[in-house]
From TrEMBL:
Biased composition (Polar residues): 1-11
Name of this chain's protein: dCTP pyrophosphatase 1
Localisation: Cytoplasm, Cytosol
Subunit structure: Homotetramer.
Source organism of this protein record: Oppiella nova
Lineage: Eukaryota, Metazoa, Ecdysozoa, Arthropoda, Chelicerata
């Protein structure tokens, strides 16, 4: 059971091969010296894999190992929290980081990509275990947030909605 929630390199080979089959472009990496405006303006995710493709690949990864039995909603949530902790550790004691993390080394960026991916994979898995259609739910939540934070009331402000109503 020690490896039931692992998404480490040892267990990611098949998934990585499946992702390769989708042939997404390599992740964009802002070069040192790029302006903040360039970094903000140009960033976009790859079109593939889609969330559902990632979900399907990971579901097969889990089924192939008979790990469904360990993936109760609670267990997957705790695994996700653990991965968020690993992600936070990368930022710990560094002070503020610029957008694009232009001062991070290639090794640090690779670690960041891996921990963010672990978080995403477990988030998708948690949504699966809870039977939540996550992209559809996120779309609804964005619409709710649009109504909750009207631009004319909150533009340039970081106040919570309860403070300006
Ligand atoms: Mg991790």
């Amino acid at each position: 059971m020690q490896e039931m929630v692992s998404t480490s390199d040892n267990h990611a080979v098949n998934v990585a091969q499946e992702v390769d089959e989708c042939q997404p472009p390599p992740p964009k990496r802002p070069l040192n010296g790029d302006s903040r405006e360039d970094i903000d303006r140009d960033f976009k995710f790859s079109d593939r894999p889609t969330l559902e493709e990632l979900h399907a690949m990971h579901t097969r990864f889990v089924k192939d190992r008979d790990w469904d039995q360990f993936h109760s909603p609670r267990n997957v949530l705790l695994a996700l929290v653990g991965e968020v902790g690993e992600l936070a550790e990368l930022f710990q004691w560094r002070g503020e980081c610029p957008v694009g993390l232009t001062d991070w080394s290639a090794k640090e960026r690779t670690a960041l990509e891996e921990e963010l991916s672990d978080c995403l994979i477990y988030l998708l898995r948690l949504a699966d275990r809870c039977r939540v259609d996550l992209p559809a739910a996120a779309l609804q939540k964005l619409a709710k947030n649009e109504a909750k934070y009207p631009i004319d009331k909150v533009f340039g402000s970081s106040k919570k909605y309860t403070e300006y109503q």
